[in-house]
């Protein structure tokens, strides 16, 4: 029998943080976790859009309104990441869903000078996880789920050019950031071996969200924007379906640390183990990226914020 949102175990008493929860996969994940009883923190960059999502959740799940809250988080600004972690109530966190991301943007830099896709998709979540790790490890059965993509298969990371300073191709940069997500999960699983923490990755296949057309919209490339919008209408599965692998990795019993879950048929279908490119299975590459990420972000895992 296929796994669906109805199979999510009771989440009562658990606290979940979901990044990018104002729309798409993040909103669906937040909604389903709240519906199963979790307290959910919607970590969003935009206050107006985050507030709209909070109000939408209150309308759809009035009984869960008291268990959902909005907190601002801009993954393109490490100062914002530190502020988010510092101001989050000092209590255990049972689940962190590293969902927010950007795709195929024109070349931009984050507030800290990183190429935006690498900075947001990987470094921002790397820093966030590190700053929240102590609170995760106090939970009985903590999980960190990081959302990657089947498009990681387009490119390995380039340790000599993590910020794409020598050349920039938007889809290659996106693929490298998604490879970085998988290497991060691999190394996090290794470094937390012997604890109760499960570090897992997931991908949604081809799901209809606003992610695909954003870069084209930013540049005014109308033909490309229409292409992606048509693909969302005609080919993609819904955001609800795309969120299932993420929710499976976040809640299903027996999920293994270091695992990668995606749709059964690559781009759509029920959650199932997903194929990974060989370069994402390298312990040496995962460790090198980890060391570089600590140096770039200034976050060493287990670091405690001074209050």
What structural keywords apply?
alpha/beta; 307 residues; SDR family NAD(P)-dependent oxidoreductase; Rossmann fold; oxidoreductase; SDR_fam; oxidoreductase activity; disordered C terminus; single chain
In short:
This protein is of the alpha/beta class and 307 residues long. The protein contains ten helices and eight strands. Helix 4 (116-137) packs parallel to helix 5.
Can you offer a commentary on this structure?
This protein is an alpha/beta fold. It has a single domain (9-205, 242-296), classed as Rossmann fold (3-Layer(aba) Sandwich). It has ten helices and eight strands. It has helices at 24-35, 47-60, 78-87, 116-137, 170-191, 214-219, 222-234, 239-242, 244-251, 283-297; strands spanning 15-19, 39-44, 68-72, 95-98, 143-147, 198-202, 260-263, 271-273. It has an eight-stranded mixed sheet with strand order 3-2-1-4-5-6-7-8, sandwiched between helices. Strand 7 (260-263) and strand 8 (271-273) form a beta hairpin. Helix 3 runs parallel beside helix 4 (116-137), helix 4 packs parallel to helix 5 and helix 4 crosses helix 10. 51% of the residues are buried. Residues 227-234 and 303-307 have low confidence and may be disordered.
